[in-house]
Specification:
There is one protein chain. The chain is of the alpha/beta class and 244 residues long. The chain is built from 7 helices and 10 strands. The strands form 2 sheets. The chain has a 7-stranded parallel sheet, with helices on both faces. A 3-stranded antiparallel sheet has the order 4-8-7. Strand 9, helix 7 and strand 10 form a beta-alpha-beta unit. It is globular and about 45 Å long. The relative contact order is 0.17. The model has no long low-confidence stretch (mean pLDDT 97). The structure holds 2-amino-2-deoxy-6-O-phosphono-alpha-D-glucopyranose. 2-amino-2-deoxy-6-O-phosphono-alpha-D-glucopyranose binds next to loops. GO terms for molecular function: glucosamine-6-phosphate deaminase activity. One of its GO terms (biological process) is N-acetylglucosamine catabolic process. This is Glucosamine-6-phosphate deaminase. InterPro entries: Glc/Gal-6P_isomerase, GlcN6P_deaminase-like, Glucosamine6P_isomerase, NagB/RpiA_transferase-like.
Length: 244
């Protein structure tokens, strides 16, 4: 779905999210949200914060799972996704700390497989993800599922593509400071969500959005797998839609 502005898109998505949370609350069920980082979802988080502060939307019964985390970054690092999520969302709403889940950037290499299995199990134990939001990287990745990621991949360590590291370089004051690996939910983990919403803003995303939506479904563009999900939508602004 194409919107004139990102603000209109996130207003709709946040209203849908609020409706999901309120209907689950009424039914006495928790709401499980899959969350993403990057510049793209920040406006959405700002709208959720506004709904919390101005319209009393409660996150007391919300459980969150983030897509990914850089390997080697402690929580306190200002570019860690743990830090990003607290700064941009969790510190401003009434979510319970024990309901917040992100992969850890600091488990030792030997512990990574067990850590990833525990992450998968925690999602299953929570009842699965009700709504997963996504951005899209220049390589077509969702989460950090770089080209070559199989459709049925699960949470695992992954080596970051050079293009992805270049895009992250300004935030890290140079590419040499960008981690070379990450832990990410797999494509299969993401595709198991009941609903998926991929957001993209600006003409810089137009080419990769076109490949994801209209290109062949394959591991070159992991976002193309969304074409085979029965409840996945793209919320994009007009400039991101120009190559469709
Ligand atoms: C990183 C994140 C992705 C995100 C992508 C695009 O690679 N792991 O989840 O979608 O960046 O970032 P941005 O939204 O800043 O364009």
């Amino acid at each position: 779905e194409t919107f004139d502005t990102p603000e209109l898109a996130v207003a709709k998505l946040a209203a849908e999210t609020a409706e999901l949370i309120r209907s689950n609350d009424a039914a006495g069920k928790p709401t499980v949200l899959g969350l993403a980082t990057g510049a793209t979802p920040i406006r959405y988080y700002q709208e959720l914060i506004r709904l919390h502060k101005e319209e009393g939307l409660s996150f007391q019964n919300v459980i969150t799972f983030n897509l990914d985390e850089y390997a080697g970054l402690p929580r306190e690092h200002k570019e860690s996704y743990w830090f990003f999520m607290h700064h941009n969302l969790f510190d401003h709403i009434d979510i319970k700390p024990e309901n917040i889940n992100l992969p850890s950037g600091t488990v030792s290499d030997a512990e990574i497989p067990a850590h990833c299995e525990e992450y998968e199990q925690a999602i299953i134990d929570a009842g699965g993800i009700d709504q997963q939001i996504l951005g899209i990287g220049r390589t077509g990745h969702i989460g950090f599922n770089e080209p070559g990621s199989p459709k049925d991949s699960l949470t695992r360590a992954i080596t970051l593509d050079e293009i992805t590291r270049e895009d992250a370089a300004p935030a890290f004051d140079g590419i040499d400071n960008v981690p070379t690996a990450a832990i990410t939910m797999g494509c299969g983990t993401i595709l198991a969500a009941k609903r998926i919403v991929l957001m993209a803003w600006g003409e810089g995303k137009a080419s990769i959005v076109q490949k994801a939506v209209q290109g062949p479904v394959n591991d070159i563009v992991s976002a193309s797998y969304l074409q085979e999900h029965d409840n996945a939508v793209f919320y994009i602004d007009q400039p991101a839609s120009t190559e469709l």
